[in-house]
Amino acid sequence: MEKRDNSRVRSNLISFVVLIAAIYVILITIFVVTLYRLTVTQSAKIQTLEAVAAELAARVDKLEASFTAQRSDETSVGDTDREGQEKTKNDMRLTNKADKQMVSHSPQTRDKRQFQGYDGFRCKKGCKGKKGEQGEPGTTGYPGPPGTMGPQGLRGETGPSGSEGRLGKAGPVGAQGPLGIEGHQGPRVSREIRVKWGHKESWAFRDNKANQISESIHLVGKGSNTQQAHRHRITNWSVRHRVGSIIYHERTGSVEVKREGYYFIYSQMYYSDGSEIQMAHNTYINDKKVMESLASVINKTKKFNTKFHGGVFLVRVNDTISVRVPYTSLYNMHSVGSFFGAFFLHPAH
Fold it and tell me: Where are the transmembrane segments (predicted)?
């Protein structure tokens, strides 16, 4: 067991040493490659600088030759045009200034005479002459080209909107226009036309002779007391008003509707029987009770009472409306105390 553990430890140690050695070799390789790249880059820069130095040396030699020729021309010509001399001197000043700038950027390996003035070079060939008088100032140079326009500035933020102005005063009322030409009278309409009921419009019939809505009936009592059987229809009616297609059946005391729509139905009965403890009457559409009125009878002397009820109901074609009494009692059929009727409001659709 110990040998096996020792061999395992030894193999782990060897693996660790190999790993460290591999990492070391990789790091050394990366360092060498990086150093090689830096060396190549520096060599390229040095070659570039040497080429620039050689070009500058050639330009300096050319300028020296030009300066020597210029000095010989000044000696031979003598009293030439002064304006031409001043121009030449100005050109030479500019040339010397450019040469000095170029020489100041040349490498240190150049000849020593490049860093000396041109006077030392001339003294090797002849004696130095006296310093000449200062020349007149040169002419003003031509103006340079106009500069390019700069980039456009950023647009500023939009300011807050102003407050809303006040409402102006109303202008004067215009003059009334001329009256139009009176139109021709149209034909009289006997069919259904649109009429207004409050805020709505509906269709209804208008009579050609009277400006009244059609489909209405009003029945009144015949003016005498009548004794009605239990749950019997009241038939003792007299037609006071009827317009349209609505029909009253005197035998059954019922009103038959011939036009579908919403109707206002009403009825009132005059109670006059002291033998019962209560009196009542109901209004029916076909065989369905839709309204009811009820009153108590105090005694035989305090037996008179009237009850009215009314409402809006949908009535279809051939429906009948009638008034019935639930008790066997005596009713006063005076025309202003007992009445019954219905009138059309608007169609169902």
Answer: 12-36
